[in-house]
Specification:
alpha+beta; five-stranded antiparallel beta sheet; 5 strands
Length: about 80
């Protein structure tokens, strides 16, 4: 698991995963996807990540996917 997403009150919404995917063209991509198969971000595979950029992308996408005004993001291994 990459992160856990909660609403502004701390209520669990979903888990977010960082998956490395090999596509049909044999290219390798990083895909950030949640329990409900919503894709937050996809990019060419890289072992490093710009934390601020990905958190901003996750925040914007989660608000859109779940129609929330604000969210909380917990990075790393978390419990539901």
């Amino acid at each position: 698991m990459f992160a856990q997403i909660n609403d502004s009150q701390g209520k669990f919404i979903t888990n977010l995963y960082w998956k490395v995917i090999t596509k049909d063209s044999a290219s390798i991509s990083d895909c950030f996807i949640d329990d409900n198969k919503n894709i937050y971000f996809e990019r060419e595979h890289c072992e490093f990540i710009d934390g601020i950029a990905i958190i901003n992308l996750i925040k914007d996408k989660a608000k859109t996917f779940y129609n929330l005004a604000d969210i909380q993001i917990s990075l790393g291994r978390t419990k539901n």
